[in-house]
Amino acid sequence: MGERVSLPGPSFNRSVKIESRAERLSSDGGALVLRECWERLGMFDWLSGRIVDVRDPNRITHPLSELLSTHLLMLGQGWTDQNDANALRDDPAFLIGRSEDRGVAPLMGKGTEESTRELASQATLSRLVEMLSCDRNRSVLEEALVVSAGRRVRAMRGHRLYNVTIDVDSLSIEVDGNQTGSAYNGYYRKQVYHPLMATLGDTGDIVGVSLRAGNVHTADGVLAFVLPIVERVEREVGVVAAVRVDAGMPDEEFCAGLEKAGKHYVARIRNNKSLDRLACPWEDRFLSGDLGPDGFRLDDGTCVFEAGTYQAGSWSRPRRVVLVMRQKPDELLPHYFWLLTSWSKEQIPAWRLLPIYRQRGTAEGYMGEMKDVLDPALSSTNRVKRHYQGKEIENKTAPRDAMAANAVLLLMNCLAYNMIHVVRVLLEKQTKEDWSLQRTRATVLKVATRFLVHSRRITVVIARSATRWWQGLWMRLASLRPPPCLARMA
């Protein structure tokens, strides 16, 4: 398969020799697992069947389905920079994982066309992002987040959930340049984008993301962001969806909008002087130990009080609030905060509302994993291309919509998260223990792999350390079949 190249060995052990050989080796064997997960759910077919491909059919080398799978598999395996595509063009794990061909064709090519067994280059993937940046294609990617979550839930449970909670929060994504829309954010003290993200705290799937400028307020555009997601989630994942947010988001527009749509919510609201005065009589009850008929003490010592209604100055009407109070060790006065909700006390009493809100911490953990493990590189700019292969271009290209391109990159990272999350959930079912996204990637997906071609068969040899995970995982993947209605919709 090619010549051997000897490399200098380590000085600490002269018996160790290093050679480079032209063998089919990869450190990303998990790309096969990721492809199988979404193949079972029909997501690659779903995406390629809805994305509008505006390329000239006579000049297409890589089908749209292969471009989408290449980009998503690279992100899932930790290759966040599109420039990495050039170094991975002959990687056998990605060649097999992205290909629609059967047999040995993904590695050996078709006939004499060597280009058919190379991954798309960085330039091609960059053009893919630009093609996905139009409103129609971006809407498809947004819908794909909810569809992938719904298909995973139904494939594993056999049915939709009944009650599901959508957690909405903002997060910061730092950029290294002056990308369009990025700005210095005084809270984070960095040059950032400030996107909104929606996750299902009950299942761990990401169901929505919206890229925003770096200096917008936390609550900017929340209602317009969440209402379509609620509708999609109730169609794909659960029968009844509620919304859970933190203190920066519940304003009059948010509350009134959800109430008008008939959707329930629970939110924390910031303390103020009016709420401090309202808390005084409940604080006396807490300190005396006589909580009264409207007070409830939970197992961890936290007390919740059914505190009636409260109307802020900007609100159109009073709304139900619940007071949460707890005494910290070695402190004289209790700490407290307020929960705002559209549920009545008959629907969800105060002692049940606090545990529901506390599950928000789990959702924040999922959001943090997406940011830390996927580490989205939102580096698209609107610079005009002036040179190609060292020569100046006579007809310079029009500037690209960098904000839309970065929105696509963020959406693709979230789709890659959902792809890895399928593996994570299967591993948790297999081992009966919690798995982080980082552990899933490092232990199961970043696997040393060798590919052997024998006649019409490819043998994949993995490191022994991953055997016990892969053995159980592939058995569970074999039973991961979406309901028949999903197969027809693929």
Structure description:
With 490 residues, the chain is α+β, with helices and mostly antiparallel strands. The chain is built from 17 helices and 19 strands. It has a 9-stranded mixed sheet, sandwiched between helices. The chain has a 3-stranded antiparallel sheet with strand order 3-18-19, with no helix packed on it. The chain has a 3-stranded antiparallel sheet with strand order 5-7-6, with no helix packed on it. A hairpin with a 2-residue loop joins strand 18 (449-454) and strand 19 (457-462). Residues 111-115 and 485-490 have low confidence and may be disordered.
Short description:
The chain is of the alpha+beta class. It has helices at 30-41, 43-50, 64-76, 84-87, 92-98, 105-108, 122-132, 135-157, 222-236, 252-260, 273-288, 350-358, 360-374, 402-431, 437-445, 467-478, 484-489; strands spanning 5-7, 18-20, 25-26, 161-170, 173-174, 183-185, 190-193, 196-200, 206-210, 238-245, 265-269, 295-297, 303-310, 319-326, 335-341, 387-388, 391-392, 449-454, 457-462. The model is unreliable at 111-115 and 485-490 (pLDDT under 50).
Helicity level: 40-55%
Poorly predicted regions are 111-115, 485-490
User: Number of helical runs?
Assistant: 17
Mean pLDDT: 88
N-to-C span: 40 Å
Q: What strand line-up does the widest sheet have?
A: 9-8-4-10-11-15-14-13-12
Structural category: alpha+beta
Q: Work out the number of β strands.
A: 19
What about the largest sheet?
Answer: 9 strands, mixed
The value of Rg in angstroms is: 26 Å
* Form type: elongated
- Report the β-strand fraction as a percent range: 15-25%
